Each structure stands twice: as C-alpha cells, then as structure tokens.
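R.M. (postdoc): so does anyone remember the format we settled on? I'll just put the structure tokens first.
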C-alpha cells in the first residue's frame, strides 16, 4: 500500500470517529443560485422583491448571487435567508493591487446592509482557473485584501473564499481516495489558498455537476448519477473500504481526499453549484430532460435532508446551492440555449413538484424509528 493510500485509509477512520455521534443532527442548508434577469433574457424581468419572495416560497435557506447588486441585496433585508455574494473575475486584479478597491466594493455591496441582510460568504471570483486563468496569480492577494478590509470594518462573521469547478481542479473522481488537486494549480494557487481558508476558518467552495462526469464516463449507470439506489447500485473504494451509492457522494469525497492529501482535511465544504439540465440545444444530449432533472433534484434533496452526510464526512457539506433559479426566455430569432438548468420556467412558475424545505429531524427520526422497529421485530 502506498503512503498516499495509507494516509487516506487512516483518514477514513479518523473522520468517522470525529463525526457527530448518533442522535445529533447534521443539517445541510439548501440554496439556489440567482443570475440576474435582464431585458436580454426576459421580456419583463422580475423585481428584486419578487426574487426574494420566490426564494422564500421555494423553502430555500440560502441564495447565491453570482452577479450581486445593491437592489437585490436590499430585497433580503430582515429575512432569514443567507446570501453568498460573488465578486466578478474581472475585479480580482484591481482588488489584489489595492485594498481600497476591496473597500469600495464592500461599501457598495455589504456595509449598507449587513447584518440586517444575513451575508454569510463572499466568493472572490468563480472558477477563475478556467474562465480567467490570466488572473489566477491575483486570486489570493485579492482574497486577503477583502478579508482584511472586512476586519478593518469590524465585520468578522463573513467568510472569504473563492469558487472552483470539480472537473477543472480534481485529477480523478474514482476511487475518491486517489483524488488529488491538479498541478500546476495545486502549487501555484490551491495550496496557499487552503492555508488561508484554514487560518480564517472559511469554507472551500466548489461546483459539482454529476451530469458532466456522467457524460464524460459512459460506464456510469444513469441511476447512479440520479440517486436511484438499488441492491447492486454501488461502487467500492478498495483502499478505504467505503461503499458509494451515488455519484454526488463520490465527487464530494474526492474533494475531501484531495484536501486531506494537501494537509487540510477539516476545512468545511460548500457546493456552490449543482443541478441537472432539463433540456439542451444539442440533440445528442438525450439525458438532459425534465424527468431526469426532477429525479436528480428530488434525490439530492432527500439525500441532503437525510442527515447522513457522505461516507468520509458524516456532517456532509455545509451548504449546497442548486443551479439555477429560472430559465432564460427563448426569444424569436435567437439561438436555442445549450442547456437549461432552472427549477422555474422563465415566467417564474414551478417546473418540478419538489419540496426544498423540510425538517432534518423528521427525516432522521423516521429512519431511527424504522431501525428500532426492525430490531424489535427481530426479537419477537
């Protein structure tokens, strides 16, 4: 057994015994990503107040604003909804160069509203290694300047991080114990960033799309990607002895193992984007359909609400954001969208019959009751 495999094998047991004991609850907040609706995407863009009301009516605990603006942030005043704000990739170099630029952004997006708006996290850029690789060297200095600017303002309850994409930073997804961060991103960007997250008690943010991995690997059964459990629907990680029954857990634990190999196994994990497309402009993407999309969403919510986490992290991910709130309109004369990910139609009506709210205690109580009942019957 290699040192890498021995390390991950040992980690499996340490993570298990450090996990919450039986009877405790492990709640994963479920949120939604909102991309601004404009006249280019909607004939009648919804007001910020309607966006806030929609998030609450859907039972979402959190909203991720990938292009925040003051009007939308203001719409969440005095609500119980937490916000994750994204700083555009284009602003990263200027924030890295001068902390005053970080102050300027914070004075516009945070200071007028916090804490009356529950802002939990600021992501400095989104998938910058893929979308703006020329700015990757500015990422950590920008994060440090935003963090220090928040401290100078007396704000200590907002995490500062950045968002990565699974397929761009993880070497392989199975077995999870073999996963590592890709080079040169690991040495140049991710290693010092992990140290920053550890020092500031912040979370690692990552976009996880089982749909994309499923399309890349034809041997993956569709049910495995859609949380459809059955007797033989599993894959075992022979190094750790862990059994995986869905692709989402495989991908999450691959990230956890990659962080562990880098010396940071205890950093909280937030899934900033996940979902399944209900349609695609590519006629070959037959699996992008509303039936599979609804199965994925229902399976995801059921799994997150179960309270059982993942095999390597019993508390699971801290938050998961579904991508995205609603589809764009398909206007006459415009090319058909490649993929549609919204859980609402462009007119803001529901696409699926899914309850995104619910009590984690109720779900866990159901399973505990079922186990106790089964033990009782076996003793009769």
């Amino acid at each position: 057994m290699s040192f890498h495999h021995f390390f991950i094998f040992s980690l499996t047991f340490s993570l298990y015994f450090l996990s919450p004991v039986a009877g405790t609850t492990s709640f994963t907040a479920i949120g939604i990503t909102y991309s601004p609706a404009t006249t280019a995407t909607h004939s009648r863009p919804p007001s910020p107040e309607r966006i806030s009301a929609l998030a609450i009516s859907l039972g979402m605990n959190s909203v991720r604003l990938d292009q925040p603006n003051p009007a939308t942030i203001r719409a969440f005043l005095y609500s119980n909804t937490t916000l994750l704000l994204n700083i555009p990739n284009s602003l990263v170099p200027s924030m890295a160069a001068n902390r005053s630029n970080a102050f300027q952004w914070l004075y516009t997006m945070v200071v007028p509203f916090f804490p009356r708006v529950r802002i939990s996290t600021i992501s400095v850029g989104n998938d910058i290694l893929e979308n703006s690789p020329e700015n990757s060297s500015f990422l950590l200095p920008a994060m440090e300047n935003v963090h220090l600017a928040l401290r100078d303002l007396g704000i200590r309850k907002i995490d500062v991080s950045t968002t990565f994409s699974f397929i761009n930073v993880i070497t392989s997804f199975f077995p999870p114990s073999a996963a590592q961060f890709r080079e040169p991103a690991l040495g140049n960007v991710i290693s010092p960033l992990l140290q920053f997250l550890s020092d500031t008690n912040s979370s690692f943010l990552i976009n996880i799309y089982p749909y994309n991995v499923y399309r890349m690997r034809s041997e993956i059964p569709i049910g495995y990607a859609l949380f459809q459990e059955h007797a033989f629907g599993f894959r075992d990680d022979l190094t750790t002895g862990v059994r995986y029954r869905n692709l989402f857990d495989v991908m999450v634990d691959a990230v956890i193992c990659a962080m562990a190999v880098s010396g940071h196994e205890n950093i909280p994990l937030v899934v900033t984007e996940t979902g399944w497309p209900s349609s695609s402009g590519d006629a070959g993407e037959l699996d992008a359909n509303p039936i599979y999309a609804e199965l994925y969403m229902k399976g995801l919510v059921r799994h997150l609400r179960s309270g059982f986490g993942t095999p390597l992290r019993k508390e699971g991910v801290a938050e998961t954001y579904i991508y995205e709130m609603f589809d764009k309109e398909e206007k006459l004369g415009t090319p058909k969208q490649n993929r549609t990910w919204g859980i609402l139609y462009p007119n803001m009506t529901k696409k699926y019959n899914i309850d995104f709210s619910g009590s984690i205690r109720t779900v866990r109580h159901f399973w505990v009751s079922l186990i106790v009942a089964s033990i009782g019957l076996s003793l009769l």
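R.M.: ...and that's the designed sequence above, right after the tokens. Also worth knowing: Confidence is low (pLDDT under 50) at residues 6-10, 12-25, 359-380. The longest helix spans residues 360-379.
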